[in-house]
Amino acid sequence: MNSLSLQTPTHTLHFHSFIFSKPTPSYISLKPKPSLTTIQCSNTNIIEIDMVKTKQGTYVQKQNKVVVLWDLDNKPPRGPPYDAALSLKTLAETFGHLTDISAYANRHTFTHLPEWVLNQRRERKNLDYLERKGILNPSEPYICSVCGRKCKTNVDLKKHFKQLHERERQKKLNRLNSLKGKKRQKYKERFVSGDSKYNDAVRGILTPKIGYGLASELRRAGVFVKTVEDKPQAADWALKKRMMYSLDRGVDWLFLVSDDSDFSEMLRRAKEANLGTVVVGDVDRALGRHADLWVSWNDVENGEVTEKDLVPKSRERRRTTNATTTTTMDEFGDVLIFHDGKEMEMGEDFMLEYSDNEYFDDDSDDEDFDEEDDGFYIY
User: Fold this and answer.
1) Are the C-beta atoms of residues 69 and 255 closer than 8 Å to each other?
2) First to last CA, the chain
């Protein structure tokens, strides 16, 4: 059995009040950071572990702090917002302790009705019409989740809910407005905020007058939602300001849900600060080149992200695959590309991987590359 001996570090030991229990996945490559305590084994293997002191006086392994910034203007949910937010939080928690998840958008994003919401409302309206005319008979009655009353049609359920439960709710709100101080707080916790049956029923029965409940559903999932001014790039400025605040707090991993290339400089600064970055989007292009990891937004929403998708980019691993890419020139002077023995047309989809010390803009018109330059690879 190897004997363990502690080596006293030469730098100052910093203690933190927070404690984490979930370890970072082994398949996530972390950047080296100065250790607070070094444990050395007799077989000359050195393990560097950041330690924190608990309230009991013992030391445990320090978990990474994760922050999620969500650009709702650029990347709104394509399905139920509550489910999308939970899937995003689950992914972020695999990297460490999620300390903050924030979403930013202007007023138009919260009032806009996406196509999938319009389709759902059209289908519901058609079903209500068929049920009211007696053409379609539901196999099971509609049950009110507040009182348990059975209704023949969905229209009857809405009528019952508005005439009974919505009026009772309004009486409670009027009573709440007449109270002050501790009485108001206790009454609110018991009869308004704590009325989970009503809060759950109103989401499934009544249709919001404005929007489709995007902000309320995200807040229910634990997301901090901020409505910015109706100005160009207002959400981008608010998100960048939040990122600078996160950098000052010393986070370890930053999640950015966006495809806006304006955040490229911000990601480069985060990388220079030794901060791990993960971009969640639809296209792995401008932002994906500056991040440590890129994940598909569609896979995150559907909960289809696997461990293989969370492996950071490795140019050497990609270049050593079995498939080979060669180029040649025909008699007309045209360059022909052969990938794994098959000729590729220039219109076909293929992937370019840029070197770490070269940055290319998507909107750049400069296409004069030197043939001997190692700036990009085709595979």
Assistant:
1) yes
2) 47
Q: What is the pLDDT of residues 110-134, one digit of tens each?
A: 999 999 999 999 999 999 999 999 9
Average pLDDT value over all residues in the chain:
75
Q: Which DSSP symbol is given to 42? A: T
**For residue 93, what pLDDT is reported?**
92
β-strands 97-105, 276-281 pairing: unpaired
pTM above 0.90, yes or no: no
In angstroms and rounded to an integer, the radius of gyration of the C-alpha atoms of the chain is 27
User: Is residue 184's pLDDT more than 50?
Assistant: yes
Residue with tokens 């930053």, as numbered in its chain: 254
How high is the pLDDT of residue 372? 40
Class of domain 65-111+221-309: alpha beta
- Residue 289 pLDDT > 50, yes or no? yes
d(CA 5, CA 1): 13
152 neighbors 142 (Cβ within 8 angstroms): yes
Residue 13 or residue 230, greater confidence: 230
The answer to whether 124 and 139 have CB atoms below 8 angstroms apart is no
Helices 264-272, 234-249: axis angle to 10 degrees equals 0
Q: Which residue has the higher pLDDT, 14 or 271?
A: 271
The token pair that represents 115 in the structure block: 């196509």
Q: Which of 82, 97, 94 is nearest to 301 (CA)?
A: 82
CB atoms within 10 A of CB 243: 22
Per the document, the length of the chain is 379
Compute the C-alpha angle 253/300/115, nearest 5°: 130
**How many C-beta atoms lie closer than 10 Å to residue 106's C-beta?**
18
**Cβ distance 291 to 267 under 8 Å?**
yes
CA distance 124 to 161: 17
Say whether pLDDT at 293 is over 50: yes
- Whether the CA torsion 230, 233, 234, 235 is positive or negative: it is positive
Q: What are the residue ranges of CATH 3.40.50.1010 in the chain?
A: 65-111+221-309
| Residue 213 CA neighbour count, 13 Å, CB half | 18
**In sequence order, what are the residues at sequence separation of 6 or more whose Cβ sits closer than 8 angstroms to the Cβ of residue 77?**
84, 85, 214, 301
Mean pLDDT of 205-218: 91
